[in-house]
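Run log, item B.
One chain of 76 residues. Sequence copied directly from the ordering sheet:
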Amino acid sequence: ARLVAGIGTPDRGSVTVGSAEAPDAPAARYLVTQEVHLFGGTLADNLRLARPDAGDEQLRHALREAGAGWALDLDA
């Protein structure tokens, strides 16, 4: 969603919407929805579904990058 909206830039390659490069594509032409699902267990358990060997610092980094750094301040 960030890449399509032009908020972020890809590490390599490009993002296109139809034939236009994002964010040059008119905003009225696209919609990015997000469906979120958490499985039973802890937030760390859910994050490790994508990278089972991730350490705690990598998980903290992933939360910050996803805009969920606020979760780091929650009581365990």
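Observations after the first pass:
- The CA atoms of residues 1 and 33 lie 8 Å apart.
- Helices lie at 2-5, 43-47, 56-65.
Flagged for discussion on Thursday.
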